[in-house]
């Protein structure tokens, strides 16, 4: 199974809470948010096809990265592929974070997207909204976006926001 990848930053300190992150940028996004900081990832053409196993082999080359972040584009437009990757990474004890323009509630109601969602630790959800842009927010671009503790939210059946250590 192959993922369409726009790019990878193997040791990022700005893409997720919890330490150094191996960040994967998915190619393709229909949200097309005005002011998006990754507009080159919007097209579903382009990118580089990589197998799940190729991505995992590359990930383990970077032992400082204990977090894997899925960004984009929007990884939820490749839900089966990222679900498989996330399952394999969880077995290897990685903390998993994803960014999406979808809302958590929308992902729960889509069988394929939920299969990916359930493997995540944190989800930054919601479209970037230029009119709500706030450069003082950690790990988000606009104030409508939430950092959701996915596992706690699933176990309590209500949205639980992640509290950042400040």
UniProtKB/TrEMBL annotation:
Cofactor: [4Fe-4S] cluster
Catalysed reactions listed for this entry: glycyl-[protein] + reduced [flavodoxin] + S-adenosyl-L-methionine = glycin-2-yl radical-[protein] + semiquinone [flavodoxin] + 5'-deoxyadenosine + L-methionine + H(+)
EC number from the UniProt entry: 1.97.1.-
Keywords from the named record: 4Fe-4S, Iron, Iron-sulfur, Metal-binding, Oxidoreductase, S-adenosyl-L-methionine
Keyword S-adenosyl-L-methionine annotated: yes
GO molecular function, a single term: metal ion binding
Pfam family, one: Fer4_12
PROSITE patterns, per the entry: PROKAR_LIPOPROTEIN, RADICAL_ACTIVATING
Source organism, top-level taxon: Bacteria
Database matches in InterPro entries: Aldolase_TIM (IPR013785), NrdG (IPR012837), Organic_radical-activating (IPR034457), Radical_activat_CS (IPR001989), rSAM (IPR007197), rSAM_sf (IPR058240)
Enzyme type, top EC level: oxidoreductase
Entry function: Activation of anaerobic ribonucleoside-triphosphate reductase under anaerobic conditions by generation of an organic free radical, using S-adenosylmethionine and reduced flavodoxin as cosubstrates to produce 5'-deoxy-adenosine.
NCBIfam families: NrdG
Family from the record: Belongs to the organic radical-activating enzymes family.
Name assigned to this protein: Anaerobic ribonucleoside-triphosphate reductase-activating protein
The species this protein was found in: Proteinivorax tanatarense
Gene symbol of the encoding locus: nrdG
């Amino acid at each position: 199974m192959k993922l369409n990848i726009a790019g990878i930053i193997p040791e990022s300190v700005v893409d997720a809470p919890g330490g150094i992150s191996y960040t994967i940028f998915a190619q393709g996004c229909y949200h097309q948010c005005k002011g998006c900081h990754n507009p080159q990832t919007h097209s579903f053409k382009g990118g580089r096809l990589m197998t799940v196993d190729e991505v995992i082999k590359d990930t383990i080359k970077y032992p400082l990265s204990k977090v894997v972040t899925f960004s984009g584009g929007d990884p939820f437009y490749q839900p089966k592929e990222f679900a498989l990757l996330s399952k394999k990474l969880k077995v290897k004890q990685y903390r998993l974070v994803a960014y999406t323009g979808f809302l958590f509630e929308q992902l729960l109601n889509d069988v394929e997207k939920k299969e990916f969602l359930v493997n995540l630790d944190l989800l930054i959800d919601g479209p970037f909204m230029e009119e709500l842009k706030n450069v003082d927010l950690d790990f988000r671009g606009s104030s409508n976006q939430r950092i959701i503790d996915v596992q706690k939210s699933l176990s309590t059946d209500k949205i639980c926001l992640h509290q950042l250590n400040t």
